[in-house]
Records
---
Amino acid sequence: MSVQERKERERASRERLIVATARELAEQQGWDAVTTRRLAERIEYSQPVLYSHFRGKREIIGAVALEGAAEMAGALRAATTATATATDEPRARVVALARAYLDFAADNPAVYDAMFQLDGGLAFAQEDTPEPLKDAFAALLETLGEVAGDDVHPALFTELFWASLHGLATLTRAGRLPPEDSELRVELLVDRLAVV
């Protein structure tokens, strides 16, 4: 291995450590607790080393958001694939998708905030949207596009369904909706919006 390859590997490893530490700190104490000083202390590197990877907290949030989008896409696809193996019913896949989305949001609140609530400097619904964000939307579209209805644009339907899931996730987490009715909400959402 060349010196350059070793340096690139070490740099990538430091970057992963910074992102993982920021994510862990945010999940434990919230994003306000994530500062470059605290990150530098936790990973035992100087602040200039952090700034050599990320220009600031905003870029760190963006990196966490991209990682989270890739994880969410994987979770959505795993849920719908498992359901497709068990049954060929589109409704069951949509329910599995909705549950997987809401579970991801509940299980990863700081990551979910990085993806959708905080400014990570990422473009959404643009030509320059990063690939992990496009793939997360594609993971929704793959299942929802087939239940949009004949005269409904699949991407627009997916946006509406996604907005509904986001609203449910956000309102439930904020304590505005009682969590014991989560399953009923998913069933109602699927029955009223999806053509299954």
Note: The mean pLDDT is 95.
---
Amino acid sequence: MTPDSGAAGFWSYTHRDDEIEEGRIRRLATKIANEFEAITAEELHVFLDKNDIKWGDEWRARIDSALTGSTLFIPVITPRFFKSDECRREVLTFSGHAASLGLDELLLPILYINVPGIGKGEQSDDVMALIAKRQYVDWTQLRLEDENSPTYRQAVHSLAVRLVEILERTAEVDPPPIARIEDPESDDEPGMLEMMADAEAALPRWNETMVEFAQTIAVIGEAVSDANAEMELSDARGAGFAGRLRATHKLAERIKPSAERLSELGEQYSAELVKVDPGVLGIIRQVESEGPEATEAEQAKEFFETVRDFARSGRKNMEAYQEFSDTLQGLSGMSKSMRPLMGKMRGAAQQVVDGQAVIDEWERRIDEVTS
């Protein structure tokens, strides 16, 4: 599919947030598009409904055509946004493609409802970290204004002007040269073979991380099973809630080191994948636009197949991670001693899901290029 000509804005938000706001998020998108057209006399195509086939088709077409320098991605940030796997995947996908082309500005978040900690220090959440690095627009107070008030209308105008300025700047940007993954400070510009070798060398390291992740989950699962058995015995003895509480505290102490290690692994895995994402997408784009030289054709084929194998392996592991998430859900009603550990484990599981989304996008682009 060939993307529509002209500028386009893809809005990413949760439908529940829009329902709570009684449609104000969708109306904001329309108002900004109308103001954009008033300023430029050109239409800004707005894509709002992710359930619409055209949203997905146009999204993929524009990404696959190197974004054309005229595609804006506007995530509407709320606490609920970070709980949506779909919204998280869209941020990661667009961010990687934009970064590989030197077009980071095309990702323009709107902070619609305040998210605690989003602008303070280092973020352990990979998607939140990506958002925090951008010059997001703060709409947390404006959302409380009357939509027809001068303050609200001026803010809509200012945001539309900013979109115009971004598109004008990015229209002139040339894709950056591909940088080394392992040695970004090197003065020697690598060729495609060096880039593939660096990325290929990283894959086993990520696989080792995932093996340890699975082993750690198994340790936690065993501890949970033992705790459940202890609670059953306690109930049989008539120990009541006091007996359950003792078993829960014991479980918390037992799994604390594993939960902390799980958190470390999740952060390490997702952060590294997000870091190398633009480089891998750059390799794929280079193969697509130029085609590998005769001496590199076989190496490119081997590299792509290695990525495909890694993607397939990751998807198989997702079933185990889903079972783990279900186990965490069952633990959610336990004592407060479990709550910090629950947060760490849930965060780690989410980062693995995010990482798989990055790898799946590599596989999708490889299939597009080689089909």
Note: The first helix runs from residue 15 to 20.
---
Amino acid sequence: MNRIVAAYTSLFSNYANTTGRMSRLNYWCAELAHIVVWILLGMVDGALCQTALIPGIYLLLMLFPILAATVRRLHDTGKGAAYLLLCFVPALGVIILFVFLC
């Protein structure tokens, strides 16, 4: 549990740092924490007002930290940041990017 919290907090300390590397375990722990927080915020929003405003704002605030972490993870696998553009290729691009991140 401490590793997950440490990985998640490292997203904020390195939110603008796209140089360097990020290990597989740290990346996936941070992603897991990010998804859990997003789901919890969605549940709170659903119970309060059902507008999806709270999780939407959270996703906007987390856009740059998650992108920076993904770029650092790609650097760890020997790939460049341009591989993020694979997200725009329907279905196959996302699968290929997922394999690179694993």
Note: Helices lie at 2-13, 24-48, 53-61, 63-76, 92-101.
